[in-house]
Amino acid sequence: MTARRAIAACARLALVAAAVLAIAAGTSLASVRPLDGHAAAATPSVRLTIDFARRPGAAHHVAHVGCSASGPRVDGFLRALGAARACAHARRIAGLLAGQPDPHRACSQIYGGPERALVTGTIGGRRIRHGFSRTNGCGIADWRRAMPLLPRPG
Fold this sequence. Notes:
alpha+beta
């Protein structure tokens, strides 16, 4: 094997290792870059619907996020946030949105408020269906992490 081939093989191996670590950490693959500075993968498409209510029985507010090769778009309460920012944040928290809650996660019993939200759709090939509430410390932390896709409570 020539030195050039060995360096290329090491660079590919490092890229794969970085991608695996990024997935495990719940970050976007778009943030992983190989040694030559080019994007590791095309940014994944995003299609999300966010249904939000301030309290049970209150009016629901709905927003949509769409991010594809034709460009980003948002509607509803996310217009003020902006399409590019919403897309970037959705990709950044894809792991949270697609993940299953850890049954062994210790959550403080602090009530944060009656707000509820449901995020559904897809990011890349991952199906998304994640409910948010602020009924304990874990829910409060997850809500904060999902902001600004979710409105500020209060």
